[in-house]
Design brief:
Blueprint: H1 3-8, H2 15-24, H3 32-52, E1 62-66, E2 72-74, H4 75-91, E3 94-99, E4 106-107, E5 116-124, E6 135-143, E7 164-170, E8 174-179, E9 185-190, E10 195-200, E11 211-213, H5 224-234, E12 244-245, H6 251-261, E13 264-267, H7 280-293, E14 297-299, E15 319-322, H8 324-340
Parallel strand pairs: 3-5, 11-12, 11-13
Antiparallel strand pairs: 1-2, 3-4, 5-6, 6-7, 7-8, 8-9, 9-10, 13-15, 14-15
Helix pairs in contact: 3-4, 5-8
């Protein structure tokens, strides 16, 4: 990277400018989505700032409550959830909000309603806060079917119906990765400007990767196709080099690396958790949407991940996502297993 040239760049593509450009390509658009996105961006900046000074502000540690998933809530979880709910409500463009931290969906007051439903995990990977590992916010956006008759079914839709998805990773830098249905773009927060700048235009995941990412601590409970695939990664029989294992345990960080470097990220179901651990609406769907938009694939072990129809807002599903060829390999193993079963 040419830092000297970067220092002299004056024509910066900020996320606001990028979204306004996209809006101008759609004559029918009224700017509602642009307004919603600007509120998401503000929420990300706020949480990024809070994460950076969490240790100093004594925000680290347990808030004393347990959330709907049975996880003890961190103070930062609680703060992030409030920040994003307030951001969505004040945008005046949302009608239903589903958060990982709240047991029930939030139906927005009719006077403040808009046409979008937002599903989100305000702070994914929060168990890693204390040790400085990258954590992040994940979100997906649906459009309501009938503005005059808003029901929970407006969010219980397959992931392929999302109009946008993204995540913001709070790590060595603050990176916002977004897709509105025509490719994936990455923006990095420039702290001196307080603006997200386009740093990763049109991200394309490599067709095949050299990395596999899975929690091998669960290996004894895996089903046969997952065990077979991981064995193939470590001991390839076709003369190729073994894949490297990289597992951070923070979904945003693991998926971000997979998106940029290729490979496969897996959270399979097992004997202990047949449906896996990842939540469909605000983890599996947004990440699968981004991976597909970047040219990869996402698979549940049975079907394409984005074809799933959730029955409840906190449903879980196994997921295998990443480079097209790598996911194709595990799909072939599952297909062969079904034929012999």
């Amino acid at each position: 990277m040419d830092h000297a040239a970067d220092a002299n760049r004056t024509d910066l593509m900020t996320i606001t400018r990028y979204v306004l450009n996209e809006q101008s390509k759609r004559p029918e658009s009224r700017g509602d989505f642009t307004i919603l996105l600007s509120h998401i961006v503000l929420g990300c900046k706020f949480v990024c700032s809070a994460v950076n000074k969490a240790g100093l502000a004594k925000l680290i540690g347990l808030a004393g409550e347990t959330n709907v998933q049975g996880e003890e809530q961190k103070k930062l979880d609680v703060l992030s959830n409030e920040v994003f709910i307030n951001a969505f409500l004040s945008s005046g463009r949302t009608c239903i909000l589903v958060s990982e931290e709240d047991e029930e969906a939030t139906f927005v007051d009719p006077a403040l309603r808009g046409k979008y439903c937002v599903v989100f995990d305000p702070l994914d990977g929060s168990s890693n806060i204390d040790c400085g590992v990258s954590i992040g916010t994940i979100f997906g956006i649906y459009m309501v079917k009938d503005f005059n008759n808003i029901t929970l079914n407006d969010v219980l839709q397959p992931g392929k119906n999302m109009v946008a998805a993204g995540y913001c990773m709070y790590g060595s830098s603050c990176t916002l990765v977004l897709s509105t249905g025509s490719g994936v773009n990455g923006f990095t927060l420039d702290p001196s400007l307080g603006e997200f700048i386009l740093t990763h235009p049109d991200i394309k995941i490599p067709k095949k990767g050299k990395i596999y990412s899975v929690n091998e601590g669960n290996a004894k409970n895996w089903d046969s196709p997952t065990a077979k695939y991981v064995d193939k990664c470590k001991f390839p029989t076709d003369g190729s080099s073994p894949k490297s294992l990289r597992y951070i345990g923070s979904m945003v960080a693991d998926v971000h690396r997979t998106l940029l470097y290729g490979g496969i990220f897996m959270y399979p179901g097992d004997k202990k958790s047949p449906d896996g651990k990842l939540r469909v609406l605000y983890e599996v769907f947004p990440m699968s949407y981004l991976i597909e938009q970047a040219g990869g694939q996402a698979f549940t072990g049975k079907i394409r991940a984005l074809d799933l129809i959730p029955q409840k807002i906190h449903d879980r599903s196994p997921v295998f996502l990443g480079s097209y060829d790598d996911v194709e390999d595990i799909k072939a193993i599952y297909t062969a297993h079904e034929k012999t079963a």
